[in-house]
Amino acid sequence: MISFASFPSTSEASASYAQARHPPEVEEELGMDLDEDDFDEGVQRLTVPGEPITSSHAFMRGHGTFVDNEEVIASVAGTVERVNKLITVRAVRSRYNPEVGDLVVGRITEVQPRRWKVDANSRQDAVLMLSSVNLPGGVQRRKLESDELQMRTFFEEGDLLVAEVQAFFSDGAMSLHTRSLRYGKLRNGQLVSVPPILIRRLKSHFVALPCGVDLILGLNGYIWVSKHVKESEQEGEEGFDAEAVYSNRNDVIDDATRIAISRVSNIIKVLAAHFVPLTDTVLLEAYEWVVDQESHVKDLLHDEFGEHLVASLGVGIRQ
Amino acid sequence: MPRPPSPSIPEKEFVYGALKQSLRLDGRAMLEMRTPTLTFGPELGWVECSLGKTRVLAQIDGKMVKPPPERPLEGMITIHSELSSMASNEYELGRPSDQEVTITRMLDKVLRRSDAVDKESLCVLAGQRVWHIRLTIHVLSDSGNMLDCACLAGIVALKHFRRPEVEVVGDEITIHHPSERAPMPLSMHHTPYCFTFAFFPDPSTPPLLDPSHLEETLSAGLLSVALNAQRELCVVQKAGGVPLAPEDVLRIMDVAVQKAKELDKIVESALQDDWAGRNVEVR
Amino acid sequence: MSSRVEILNDGGFRSDGRKQYELRDITIDLSQQGTADGSAIITHGLTQVMVTVFGPREAKMRSQTLHDRAVLNVEMSVAPFSTGERRKRSRADRRILELSAAIESTFEPVVQTSLYPRSQIDIYIHVLQQDGGLLQACINATTLALITAGVPLLDFVCAVSGGVHSTEPLLDLTTLEENDLPNLTVAVMPRTRKVTLVTMETRLHVERFRDIFELACEAGQTIHKEMKRAVKDRTVALVGAMDAGAKHPSGDPDRDLTMEDR
Lengths: 319, 283, 262
Prior knowledge:
By secondary structure, chain B is α+β, with helices and mostly antiparallel strands. Chain B contains 5 helices and 14 strands. The radius of gyration of chain C is 21 Å and the shape is globular.
């Protein structure tokens, strides 16, 4: 039998390449729960493309798998999940996979007849139909031809918006809607982009931090960090003010709020770099810790400071 | 980029269905080549090769040049290939398509880099004068497997070409006109022939040799092998396409070895016939 | 003409001290590069290639989309400083076009493109250093980058180069060896052991070809182990980080202090 050794070679000619490179203790750690063949609760099974998971007779294939030769085989690298007989593999990092009802933050890329194209970090641009937005003059109003002609006054290329996934087209593209007063154009803040898997489904994706900063955690990994808007100042059902909803002008933002916004954005970037799932509690705790340190906003961008932050939360990977 | 109209769906299904039963639309066996027809022109090194409706014209001329300083002892060979819209409406002017790149690179590998021609024998006076052989390939019409046809035309043209005899006295070079002294053939190391096999998405469909245009369009992968009658492989090229078992690849090599021997006989006899009919005057 | 360096000496060692079947040191870096969806840097000895993958994403040109599957787009650039002789290769260099076309058609049947109709997957290959085995490094790095981007693949594609010195097969050639020996590159899919790519450009007897071809298929499995390990390491690290975050003591999902209603 021929064996392939690495360069530089080890004393044993038969040693496999991998063994030559990794000290034995790493070896053991790597082997952990990877060879587990059963689906015990709580044991996470990781897999790589092309790795057989189980027989296709006993189980059904879901996302991230395919069937070949009566075996369910993984097609992405990630964690194996099982719901009854359905086996899926969730990629550890990928583009956003939309589901109906998800809250997303997007950016208009194109204005087309009766629809907008929205970049939402998915495999195709999402579609926002003119009929799926609230127009000035009452929610239930009919769409007129004049609305079609002035679509750019509502959203134009480059605008950011928050919306909900409404449905899918046959080719998998998603359709959005903004038929709620909480949805619509975004102002007074900045966008941070993180891997979508880090945004978990929460009770509410609108988070108000006590430091006067509002967060919109889009499930597509886009996060909008903006100045807090008081509940009472939000436009009510009756006083739907098209001017205000589709306005492109930012409010007056004081320095303290601006600093808070940048600080929150930087915290999100640091946490995302350490692959920490973002929830309101984690963010709040991180913000408090950062404020306690009495540091400057830009200190967060130093690797060391970021690592301290993550360590203080007791989460994340040590690098 | 406007795509060429692909075969309609029922047509596609029909061809796939037929191939699965080892039947080809033109009635050939799966591993049967269309018999090449070689037509020699009035000049030496002017060959038209046709495989069915695929026709390629190869033409050679040679001239004396000063060699580049890094290779003073070797002659030069350059290949120009012309794929115009004349061959098929799939080819357009402008940026070369992927297929065009593949074909030009393959021609280069099969005819030039495989050392078919002894380049050192093309040297007349070291560092001063060498032969520059220029091979021009015109594709006249493409009805599948243009690569094999072009390679065959090219290699036959190289074998058919004769260069004028040269005499060197001191630093003096005399080129003898073909009417004074018989021109010399190029000295060839070997003659590689190229064979292209097509594979189909359905794994139970056997591979086929020398695909027609329709078969080529419908195939899910091509494997080109260039080799000579002495069982030496020169180029193997399978760039992607359907995955194959290693044994299948080796089986194809064996088929190609057989085919190369057969083709070599055809080419040799065609060249001999032509040479016999040619009257070279030497005074 | 090349200097007469001994390719394989009497002791059975190659010019860089390797044995006949020994592969060069492989390092794999799967860390995030910029805004790319997936990226990988692979080093085979002194050959280094970086690949970044964007997508599946909305196609830039709508006319190039396909209604039933995603389009792969491979672009390759070779750094002028990657070889000893500094030379700028244009993007339209035929050799580069051929390589990128080969890589594209290698991955087309492997990527499950039918899951992403009307999308485009962009693969950008940057050759940073060259010392033989360029195609092999490009293919391996592309596989890894596609995996890190979460693009579904039927299997890994593992490539390895080989050559023959008189009658002795050698694996994983350096530039020095590539210039002197007949050489080939083979890409295999380790699960089914099928071959997706074979290229050879130099004269070699059929029997010799058989030897090195079979050997290279075998060596692909070894490379696969190494690539699999790198991918698993990364998955373990990332999943570990996420779990730690999720198990965070105060991360009680029912706590609703700062959330607004509705």
